[in-house]
Amino acid sequence: MGIHLKDGVRAVLDRPNIAHLATLRRDGAPKCAPVRTLRDADRVLIGTHADTLKAANTAHDPRVALSVVDRDNPYEEVQLRGTVIDHEPDPDLAVMDRLARKYTGEDFPWREGHGRIAMVIEVTQARHHVLPFVEPEAG
Questions:
Q1: Closest by alpha carbon to 100, among 57, 51, 31, 45?
Q2: Is residue 116 classed as helix, strand or coil in its secondary structure?
Q3: Is the distance from CB of 92 to CB of 19 less than 8 angstroms?
Q4: pLDDT digits (tens, 9 = 90+) for 35-71
């Protein structure tokens, strides 16, 4: 069963921050990939193609972890663990367009929707942390 995401977690997820998704390969080896995310209430959506390794990995073992670092403050982070509860078809690119608009302001550029899916993650653990550091000025 999923948890309710606290405001700090929601805020980091709602900004256009790149996440890193960890999945498990069939041999048990971890696989990590940068992904773009959407928050749907207390769930996380990741758009991808059904033929990707992340889709295959989560089809055989749905356990995942996500690490998100805020792009404006690299000392603010979110760590999530959860389960992929669905691979929802996205043939009309509704999820892909929402993702693209969040990160680029434009619709998803590749308009072929065949095979596109949204991986739906039910979050089971969440941690939001802000370290008390400031990035030094460049120069």
A1: 45
A2: strand
A3: no
A4: 999 999 999 999 999 999 999 999 999 999 999 999 9
